[in-house]
């Protein structure tokens, strides 16, 4: 029997499912972009692979970036969930942090994902120092669990106050619930997040329970569909922290998939940029529904301790910092009540899609605007869903909905749509760069997704970016990220004690033990790693402070000293704030352990142009393109046929199966040795 030769990455978005296939026997790649299947994403997933791989038995590994959890949260389509909590604390999830949906107003409302009738209390109490004031009554817990199940709850979360300090009551309650609960969807808050701050812990745990039935059902259908076609390799899932995990782990901790797909894109962009000599980039992932932005400085993606998926839906688990706005190719342009043009956040998605798809939508989208302005070839739509795009329908829609109300020509109205979309994208880029102290001129944009490369030039001008780096297959970059991602697991545990009261040697041994326990998850995954890295960190602050700094540690078992911790804290604090506070005791809030299984690096030379042709030989014609208030004659090129070193001046359009690239007037583009297109302002 021959050894399986394919590693497949699959990213499922709201509009398209992207497939990246690495043939390890020939070191070659195959890509595909197919329409996503609403209702059951697993169908589009399997059908997409079938287009490129004849025998599923030849696949060694499939790595999946999924939006099932994300969509369930955004659309509030998770399972009916119950919470069993400490007496007097059923409303913690609703009280939040005393914030408001509308910051500068008194209006707005918030509905928790768990209704108050499904939040029940039991008598128990653990104090902040971990001492048990009142033990939990098992029969009381079982009675409340039966009532929740009878009331229609499919999943349940057990959350007890101060459980991070001592989880004995919570652990015993979970055992009692599992003895009567009709399925496996039981979440213990301290298992998800054994960290101080009660709202964040109950929010994260409740969202995990809310997603368990949805994500588990999807993964079961997916595994069945793959097995029916002969797949017997490893199926892995991308986490929000940019690592991957087994299906077993994803079923237990589905909340870790909240930003799965976007995280894969950042991982791929980082790897591509590093090989091309760019350490500082801003990733710009533009799909059919959203525009996702993330900043990578010094070759490292930034991790956030928590994020809000929507107002009041806080997830506190390590995630790549990604800012998302509703500015995708399917985002709908409309006129508000005050007569102002708006773009998004509503999207036409893949069904019915933009007006030019001819599937029933009558409201214009960003894609329709790009088509009307000549930037998209109507005879070459990406994704394989249609044979041709309906330009006239897009023009009629823009004229009716935008041009006439604003008294503009159709072209000016379409360009106004793009200008507004670009302004929103530029705002997101400024948010992750300028507002955090970074000079955008030192960064290159990395546009990917189906629509990112159409807007890269405009973002260079709008934000003042140094360049744009368009990867060889921008439309399937997130799928590539699935293939190159490492396996990663993160753990946190609250300590909440002054440093001088801590046995630091014992603390070090605890962290090493947690790393060993977490490393066992890697061993069970069946994946081969080149090496395993362990990262140890503390969250520390001065006594009386609220916000902590992240303190990196390096030590061997038994040799962590108080002096070493103090020195590491001083370095981290001075780096963050420029000064130290003498005479004030230091406090350790949490320790964090990350275990990373490093997978073999993908040689980016696999994308290098071979047998390419000069720019003139790749030119397929010209097309009128409307830009900056006038028509231009733009040359059209077959992008994948361009040789290394080929140079193109804008205005120009580069076409390929997974995307279209627009080189704006005043810009030029060069093909590098890895097949990337480097776009910059023209110097002459």
From the structure above, extract its key features.
17 helices; 35 strands; 684 residues; globular; alpha+beta
Write the layout of secondary structure elements.
Layout: E1 6-12, E2 16-23, E3 28-35, H1 41-52, E4 59-65, H2 68-74, E5 81-86, H3 92-95, E6 119-122, E7 125-126, E8 132-134, H4 138-150, E9 155-159, H5 168-178, E10 186-188, H6 189-192, H7 198-228, E11 234-238, E12 244-246, H8 247-252, H9 260-275, E13 281-286, E14 291-297, E15 300-301, E16 303-304, E17 307-310, E18 313-315, E19 319-320, E20 323-325, E21 331-335, E22 341-347, H10 366-372, H11 391-406, H12 410-432, E23 444-448, H13 456-463, E24 467-470, H14 477-484, E25 487-498, H15 504-524, E26 531-542, E27 549-553, H16 562-577, E28 586-598, H17 615-618, E29 619-627, E30 630-638, E31 647-649, E32 652-656, E33 659-663, E34 667-671, E35 677-681
Parallel strand pairs: 1-4, 4-11, 5-6, 5-9, 9-10, 13-23, 23-24, 30-32
Antiparallel strand pairs: 1-2, 2-3, 7-8, 11-12, 13-14, 14-15, 14-20, 16-19, 17-18, 21-22, 24-35, 25-28, 26-27, 26-28, 29-30, 31-34, 32-33, 34-35
Helix pairs in contact: 1-7, 2-7, 4-5, 9-14, 10-11, 10-12, 11-12, 12-13
Quick recap:
By secondary structure, this protein is of the alpha+beta class.
How much of the polypeptide forms β-strand, as a percent range?
A: 25-35%
Catalogue the unreliable spans.
none
- From the N-terminal CA to the C-terminal CA, the straight-line distance is 60 Å
Task: Specify the number of helices.
Answer: 17
Assembly type of the chains comes to: single chain
The largest sheet, given as strand count, sense and whether it forms a barrel, is: 9 strands, mixed
Shape: globular
